[in-house]
Amino acid sequence: MSRNPNVTLKPIYERPSISQHRAGFMNKMSASSAYQPTDSIDGVLVEDLVEAHGSPLFVYSQRTLEDRYQELSGHLARRWPRVQLAWSYKTCYLDAVCKAFHAQGAWAEVVSGMEFQKARRNGIPARNIVFNGPRKTKEELAEAFEGEAIVNIDHFDELALAEKVAGELGIRPKVGIRLNLAAGSSVQRWGRFGFALETGQAWDAVRRMIGGGKLQLAGLHCHIGTFVLDPAGYGVAAGKIAEFANRLRRELGIKLDYLDMGGGFASKARLRSQYLPGEQVSPSFAQYAEAITDGLSALAVPHDETPLLILETGRALVDDAGTLISTVFANKRLPDGRRAMVLDAGVNVLFTSFWYRHDITPCSEPRGVPEPTVVYGPLCMNIDVVCENIMLPPLEVGSRVLIGPVGAYNVTQSMQFIQLRPAVAMISPAGEVAEIRRIETLDDLVMGESVPSWLS
Ligand SMILES: Cc1ncc(COP(=O)(O)O)c(C=O)c1O
After folding, report:
1. Mutation choice for ligand 1 from 88, 93, 178, 413, CB with most ligand atoms inside 8 A
2. Same domain, residue pair 148 and 270
3. What is the pLDDT of residues 56-82, one digit of tens each?
4. Quick one: 221 and 255 in the same domain?
């Protein structure tokens, strides 16, 4: 393109369009559906990021991640004397993200041997690792017990295995048990994890543990769900945990070291079924902290025996810190007349699109009238729908969009299906950019493969 100011550029042709005027299009909070084009993330130009690291590209804002951490720990510390956050590795176990949380003081919460090793490699001592999950192997339990990790037992078979491992090691490790409990009518119960409280199974597990004499009960754990939009559910759960702890003390003389309330707070994302945007619906950290500590106030222990309150918050700490830059690859008209757009990122890297309606924001001033648009990814699969219906103006091929919030569960659940996985960058609070995972290559993909001799 000529940059000579004397040359008059031909105006760009804009396809005329008619759009139906719909009464009541504003939402009931009277906010319009207008979007602000955004060309940077934390002050760094999207174009510069793409030029250096390609598209699609996940970008994590270290500042947002640290702000969220400080906000949550501040609200908890004002309400409970002893608090510890344990970063939920599965939410995003990129080393840079984990280390950013560890630098703020977070322990690690892991749900597999692989995550345990990752936390150890990130410099976390075993005693600062909370080991959860329904499958811990004999070897993993042995390593965890030897390092004095916080192991929360999930079921009776694991209890038996833990006793066996403890017996073989000749030690009597401290463990916790995961309680499965009903947290009120607003929280859908996950039946499969932990020992059921209301049926008496949890009490049986404790008696069994005491009878076995191989393990010491040191903590209680629960995790009532994920994206729990009603803080009251935490109040109910915390109240039940407190009552259970009181009973342990009263009837069995057990003093607990910790109460672990798990994770599950909502981020600012918007569920597909949600009418209003996340900012208007998701509770604040203050509301969650208030509900938990209110519930725990039923605990009847002397002040100097107050157990450590552990939280394993994942999504609400990292989701809002993650954005995906994507590029418009094609525009098309569907047989039913709807406008559609094909991006270079799909459900292969945005697993959460199945449940959340992510915001899609153009990076440059769009031309033309917004229309309901279906946003597809690049996969040759019908299910590859990033968003079924979003008002978007026409966006030229090659233009960028920002998709967010996508910091939680996408990088860890992304699949190398048809496409190679994109790079991930992090922006520091000072505005420095670092690539924290490079783009995947075909060599990465075939690294573990081999061809049997009769085919080679
Ligand atoms: C045991 C446990 N703790 C913590 C988390 C983190 O939950 P969230 O990301 O919803 O905060 C999970 C996720 O499901 C979990 O299973």
Report:
1. 88
2. yes
3. 999 999 999 999 999 999 999 999 999
4. yes
What per-residue string of b and e applies to 247-259 under the rule 16 or more CB within 10 Å gives b? ebbeeeebebbbb
pLDDT-based confidence at residue 13 (cuts at 50, 70, 90): confident
Whichever domain contains 149, its CATH number is 3.20.20.10
Residue 452 lies in a domain: no
- The answer to the question of residue 105 being in a domain is no
Residues 6+ apart with CB under 8 A from 430: none
- Average pLDDT of 278-285? 95
Q: Span 195-205, mean pLDDT?
A: 98
Atom of ligand 1 nearest to the CA of 315: 9
Q: Is the same domain home to 196 and 164?
A: yes
User: Contact 343/328 with Cβ under 8 angstroms?
Assistant: yes
Number of domains in the chain: 2
What is the model's pTM? 0.93
In a domain, residue 92? The reply is no
Same domain assignment for residues 423 and 392: yes
**Residues 195 and 278 reside in one and the same domain:** yes
C-alpha to C-alpha distance for 311 and 421, rounded to whole angstroms: 31
Is 346 close to ligand 1, i.e. is its CB under 6 Å away?
Answer: no
pLDDT value at position 24? 40
Q: What is the pLDDT of residue 10?
A: 74
Q: How many whole angstroms from 238 Cα to the centroid of ligand 1? A: 16
Is the separation of the CB atoms in 245 and 206 below 8 Å? no
Name 344's Cβ contacts closer than 8 Å, sequence gap at least 6: 55, 56, 326, 327, 329, 377, 378
Which atom of ligand 1 is found nearest the CA of 409? 9
Q: What is the mean pLDDT of residues 31-36?
A: 59
C-beta of 223 in contact with ligand 1 (< 6 A): yes
> Of 313, 345, 371, which residue sits at a domain end?
313
Q: Which residue CA neighbors atom 5 of ligand 1 most closely? A: 263
Q: How high is the pLDDT of residue 34? A: 58
* Beta carbon of 314 within 6 Å of any ligand 1 atom: yes
Q: Tell me the residue range of the domain where 215 lies.
A: 132-313
Q: What is the mean pLDDT of the chain?
A: 94
Are 166 and 268 in the same domain? yes
Q: At 351, which CATH number?
A: 2.40.37.10
Nearest-atom number in ligand 1 for the CA of 132 is 1
The answer to whether the CB of 132 is under 6 A from ligand 1 is yes
Atom from ligand 1 closest to the CA of residue 312: 4
Instruction: Write b or e for each residue in 412-449: b if 16 or more Cβ atoms lie within 10 A of its Cβ, otherwise e.
Output: bebeeeebebbbbbbbeeeeebebbbeeeeeeeeeeee
